[in-house]
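Work package 3, deliverable 3.1, input record:
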Amino acid sequence: MTQRKRLSNTQSSSQSKRQPSSLVAQEEDDDATFTQPSTSQVQRGLEKLTPAQIDQKTAEVVQYFLVKDQKKIPVRRADLVKHVVKEYRNIYPEIIKRASRTFDQVFGLKLVEIDAKTHMYILINKLETAEGISPINSPANPKMGLLFVILSVIFMKGGVVRENVIWNTLKKLRVDPGEKHEEFGDVKKLVTDEFVRQRYLEYVRIPHTEPAEYEFHWGQRADIEVSKAKILEFMGQLHEQDPQSWTQQYREAHSCPSSTQASTSSQR
Amino acid sequence: MRRARASGDEEAPRQNGSAGRRRSEQLQSDGDDGDGGLGPADLQHDDNDPVLRREIRSKYRDLIYSVQQNREDMLSPSNNKLTEVLEQANKLFKDVRQAREAALDAQLLVVATDLGKEKASQLFAEGSAFDPTAFAEHLLSFMGLNRLEDEEDEQQNGGDGYLPQDAWHRLARRAECCFRTAPSFHYMMGSFHAEPPPPKQRIERQRKAPSKEATRIMPTQLKKMEESHQEATEKEVERILGYLKTYYQDDPTSPISYYEFVIDPNSFSRTVENIFHTSFLIRDGLARMYLDNDKLPCIAPVEEGEVEAGGSCSRKQCIISISPKTWKDLIDAFDITETMIHPPSSENE
């Protein structure tokens, strides 16, 4: 209610500020229609604002990201603009630039746009975690263990895996998707809904299957956040085997130019 | 060796499935000719026999179902089940005459191809193969599974051995280094919910409460209460005036003691009510109070002619207080045994 009210306020205020009515009309169906302002537009927008105003807005954006990151669900650009940036949308690129600088220099985090089409952002840790030991004495999140198992199986199986392979593996680990688990609750929901919304996993229907069957892929967040090289290393430890003996996986883990793992693995 | 064979089986239906089928059908019909068992007439007859058609379709469905159900088994490289299924399908296919049956055959082919693809992917893997079952076993060991100890509820899950409470925590801690997850930020003063609490429930409750019936009843009730209350007071005041007048008319010469008039020896609350209602008579000038020779208050109704005369004389006010104690004292002092103003309910009786 209040949000809607606020939104309408911002719309009317932005209407008075900016002349092109077509833009205002577009804002109403916010999502994909938010158009990135041009550099000259940003420049003009910046001239109208004091540095303190821009800093304030940047701080708001930073806080929004931090709070949203608690649940690890990516932030949509449309939501960000609607709830936080609001009438500053004409200088949006500048605000994002400043926010990612803050994350980089103050928090040691990296703001990543995971999907150029839907414009979703996530935060990842820039700092390397030391092997084995958690940097902070925070209690480990058991869900990460579950996620690790699933991602590992997908990766080791070449990137795609049928859901029943996952369910069977989990059953062997005493986690039955049909039953309520004391640690994970509704396992099926956690895996096919929460992990999917967090973009750790993709859960897609296999075409031409009747009844419908599904398979798992790595999600966009996993691609950026999870190190295949380190999974393979752990895998080697578990199997008491040289990670290089999984030739294909080893090659993949150490040769993805797009993802950030490339740099970390070359460091080692 | 086995693997090579398996891959051969799978490649065939994928690449030239239809050709293969046609060939096998031809072979089959050649065989039939050789046997001489089935002539073209028989075939003609089969085409329209609904029982046979249904049987074929049912067999196909069973076959598809069994493939779907035993998928994991069939994937294992140590058996030839896929080949067996394909051979069975070939046998069925020789009787296929109608489009629906052919469609089922095609569906089975999809399932089989899919299986073949997965089997093939097992072969493609260079270097070591990855077996999720072995992986799960290693994980269980890592998580601290004690295979010697048995716990009853763990056995339900099909495994043996006791998995410690912190098993998943242990794994999560080790796996953490594979993730470059941003540590999530929390307020020191408790949690702050990023989303506003859904006001759904409240809305529902509000909607439920003033249901049609309630809205209809509530105002009428209120109105009635107000009306009846006012009316009750007025009625009561009039009733008391009636009593006062009758007592006065019975004997106009003897004064009516105020306390004797007002006090109900059986009920303190009735007494208070009587005092309250009588005060209206005084206020409206329908009754007057005076002190007799013993300085005791008396009450008398005001005659019609006197009303106007009384209006001119100065008004006096006084407050009467009464407590259960003074009430009892008064009852004793005036020796009151009966109420002069009967309660309305008893009057009705």
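The two ends of chain B are 113 Å apart (CA to CA).
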